[in-house]
Amino acid sequence: MGIHKRGKTWYSQFQIKGKTYIQSTKTTNKTLAKEFDRKFRNEVYNREYLGEREKIQLTDALDQYLKTKKDTKNYKGLVSNVRTVKTYFDESLALHDLTTAKIERFVQKRKDEGFKSMTIHHSLVVIRGSHKLAEKLGYRVVPIEWPPMKKSPGRLRYLSIEEEQRLLRELDPDKVFGNTHQHDPENLTPEKLQARIDNRDLVIALLDTGCRYSEIAQLKWSDVDTDDGTINLYRSKTNNSSILYCTDRLLITFRNRFKHRRSDEYIFTDKSGKSHRNHSTIAIRKAFDRAGLKDVRVHDLRHTAASRLVQNGLSLLEVSKILGHSTIQMTMRYAHLEQSETAKKMRDVLNKVNDQVKPKLAVVK
């Protein structure tokens, strides 16, 4: 269904309530034909469905949508997106006056302002959700062709072994810092020494688990078994759980922290020692700079763990489960690494087979 040609003329054809509608667009221009098709569909849809349906303004529909999402984990993000959407549309706009053309203009304006596809996509999510909910509740709406938004896979930066070594050297609690590098380590206060130990240990935990910062910062002693080296991790962002196994160095790190723990509840605490660590990354980012890692962010430690797993034989599905991704699509950013390793395995297999083939080729001098 849609527009199709009969001879040189485009025709509009679709079904509503089991009835087929077909009409000539009276044009050979495809763009004009699509516009005719939209108007024809809206006209028929309005006649068949809307009737005396109650009207609702777009702003009210957005607020109505938010109420249904109040207990969800991304509620704050939805509130922010709704606030943004409201600034682009007149507050008196009726939802049934929201058309495909208005949505397209909204998207184009956001693009012209320099916003990325993913940001615009988030705005469309709340508009589309509001539209869908209003239709379910019996309010007057018209069909909208929602523009597809290409989602960027995001940046992928991960540390090499040599870069990790440089970073850990800069996080070494015994290292003397400062512009002159001549400060007396004995003058280091216990509080500052503890902060350095915390930052080093946190980075090791991020590198060796692939966890998000918040997941490690809020990790509890009750979640970690320092005897068998397991971590029972609940991921609030995706509402799922994982069982992870500590690497040797992470297990040593946790055992050391347990011996000198400041809290019986949290592994990493704030300055008071009474609550979990907050999002405090300034010292870690300074260590990035000292190590010459100018383009690295804390979240890239998660990418580093994931990339190493893929490069060393784990499938994307396995890595997806370890990272706690809600869908395999989120793990596809590492697909090129898996393909590269698969190609190397192919080479190695064929080399083994070729070793059995005689005569062998000699290098031409």
Question: Can you walk through the features of this model?
Answer:
The chain has 365 residues and is mostly helical. The protein folds into 3 domains: 2-50, no CATH class; 58-136; 161-348, Intergrase catalytic core (hpI Integrase, Chain A, Orthogonal Bundle), CATH 1.10.443.10. 47% of the residues lie in helices and 9% in strands. The chain has a 3-stranded antiparallel β-sheet, covered by helices on one side. The chain has a 3-stranded antiparallel β-sheet with strand order 4-5-6, with no helix packed on it. Strand 1 (2-6) and strand 2 (9-16) form a beta hairpin. Helix 2 crosses helix 5. It is extended, with a radius of gyration of 29 Å. Residues 179-183 have low confidence and may be disordered.
Provide a short characterization of the protein structure.
By secondary structure, this protein is mainly α.
Question: How are the elements arranged and paired?
Answer:
Layout: E1 2-6, E2 9-16, E3 19-24, H1 30-50, H2 58-68, H3 75-86, H4 100-112, H5 117-136, H6 161-170, H7 190-209, H8 213-217, E4 224-225, E5 230-235, E6 240-245, H9 248-259, H10 282-290, H11 300-311, H12 316-323, H13 335-354
Antiparallel strand pairs: 1-2, 2-3, 4-5, 5-6
Helix pairs in contact: 2-3, 2-5, 3-5, 7-9, 7-11
Main sheet properties:
3 strands, antiparallel
CATH topology term of the largest domain: hpI Integrase, Chain A
Strand proportion, as a percent range, falls in 5-15%
User: Structural class, please?
Assistant: mainly alpha
Corresponding CATH architecture of the largest domain: Orthogonal Bundle
Any idea how many domains? 3
Compute the gyration radius: what is it? 29 Å
What is the averaged pLDDT score?
87
Distance between the termini: 66 Å
Helix content: 40-55%
Tally of DSSP β-strands: 6
Taking strands numbered 1, 2, ... along the chain, how are they ordered across the largest sheet?
1-2-3
Secondary-structure element order, N to C: EEEHHHHHHHHEEEHHHHH
Classified in CATH, the superfamily of the largest domain is: Intergrase catalytic core
Low-confidence stretches: 179-183
In DSSP terms, counting alpha (H) and pi (I) runs of 4 or more, how many helices?
13
Regarding CATH, which class of the largest domain? Answer: Mainly Alpha
Bulk shape? extended
